[in-house]
Q: What sequence folds into this?
């Protein structure tokens, strides 16, 4: 039979100005001027070597305050329900979040970035370098999001719908 | 003190033609014609609703066969070492992989896609819809990868360097 859970190591913690789940930017594009940092646990600091040459990084983190997972949700950017895997809503079966952020500096076991759309104290799972030829999809079609403002994340902030 | 591990639910399993870690495509861009599927556990199938309207999905999965995590690695695409967080190498502290794949079909609790660069039987952690205005970074600069072929993942396959 298939495993139903996985245990992953955490590599550090995210520091941001966001202390509560309400009224947060819902994506990095709504937080372009908001600075955050990833503080790695000392034993992992060496792994940041050469990341400073990249303009963007992909952060994967534990959505540790999300709760009330449902399979259909009304996301921040719509008024009707969609399947959870067709949304970026935080209350997912596996509470993992992903943000592509712009790198400001890398030094002393710390990555400083802009685009901070995470809660302060969020546990960090992984950092990957953004590689345009692999990660960009210039012809992407965005389903129900196609009919929304093309940069809606810059306008929308969270509310309390996914708070416990 | 900070937590050092996180337990995440798995939502399904990936089916691909790749039975061994050697000679695999190292990114979806090297597997554009290779079909795979994500089979969700029945209790999560409803969460796929409306994903079929998107052209691309982000798959997050457990790199369950990676081993020998090191903080500096010589990645498939270079001959010198880099910090693990400046590479996409599979042997990371948190063994989590990410691939952006092209959606072929969504039905009966299953997502069929092209761009299959994962091992058959890989445990699936999450599916997120790709949203161009948030996920694309047209001005991205790629550090040490900038000096490599701009589409090297289409040429390179894995070898046994990260096998146990």
A:
């Amino acid at each position: 039979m298939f495993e139903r859970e996985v245990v992953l190591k955490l590599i550090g913690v995210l520091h941001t100005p966001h202390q509560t789940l309400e009224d947060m930017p819902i994506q990095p594009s709504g937080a372009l001027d908001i600075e955050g940092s990833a503080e790695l646990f000392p034993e992992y600091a060496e792994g940041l070597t050469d990341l400073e040459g990249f303009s963007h990084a992909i952060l994967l983190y534990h959505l540790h305050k999300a709760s009330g997972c449902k399979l259909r949700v009304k996301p921040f950017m719509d008024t009707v329900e969609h399947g959870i895997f067709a949304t970026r809503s935080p209350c997912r079966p596996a509470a993992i979040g992903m943000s592509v952020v712009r790198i400001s500096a890398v030094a002393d076991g710390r990555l400083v970035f802009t685009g901070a759309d995470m809660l302060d104290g969020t546990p960090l799972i992984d950092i990957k370098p953004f590689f345009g030829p692999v990660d960009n999809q210039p012809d992407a079609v965005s389903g129900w999001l196609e009919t929304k403002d093309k940069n809606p994340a810059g306008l929308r902030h969270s509310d309390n719908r996914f708070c416990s």
